[in-house]
Specification:
- The chain has about 130 residues and is α+β, with helices and mostly antiparallel strands.
- The chain contains 2 helices and 7 strands; from the N terminus they run E-E-H-E-E-E-E-E-H.
- The protein has a 5-stranded antiparallel β-sheet. Strands 1-6 form a two-stranded parallel sheet.
Length: about 130
């Protein structure tokens, strides 16, 4: 999913977007939804089904270092979170209103790590 700064949604004025491969992202969504409370915010998926984008709080990109993912920083001029997806060629997996405003970056980092381990274990069984 390719995004431009002007395409990235904002929550409470701005947000960042963590983009991951779809398989790892879907595992992470399952992990987050099984956790305590509402741990996952809005999630975008691209029409090709190759990536998922997690809405995270602004400033996350400055310290994001998870291999295999990217974090796009916004400058507060993104599009408001509406039911329509903010990035052309994408759709909401978890739309705003059905999820928290943003996923906690530490919780997402842990879920992505667990998802990578699950995928590695599943692939080694083939």
């Amino acid at each position: 999913m390719e995004t431009r700064q002007s395409d990235v949604p904002r929550a409470q004025g701005a947000c960042d977007l963590v983009t991951v491969p779809a398989r790892q992202g879907l595992e992470a969504v399952d992990i987050l939804r099984r956790g305590p409370g509402e741990a996952v915010g809005p999630v975008l998926h691209d029409d090709d089904g190759e990536t998922l984008g997690f809405v995270v709080p602004p400033g996350t990109a400055a310290a994001w270092d998870v291999p295999g993912s990217t974090c796009t920083e916004t400058d507060g001029r993104g599009t408001s979170l509406h039911p329509e997806p903010p990035v052309e060629g994408s759709d909401w997996l978890l739309p705003p209103g059905e999820a928290d405003l943003a996923t906690d970056p530490a919780v997402l980092r842990a879920a992505l790590g667990e998802a990578a381990r699950i995928i590695k274990a599943a692939d080694s069984c083939r």
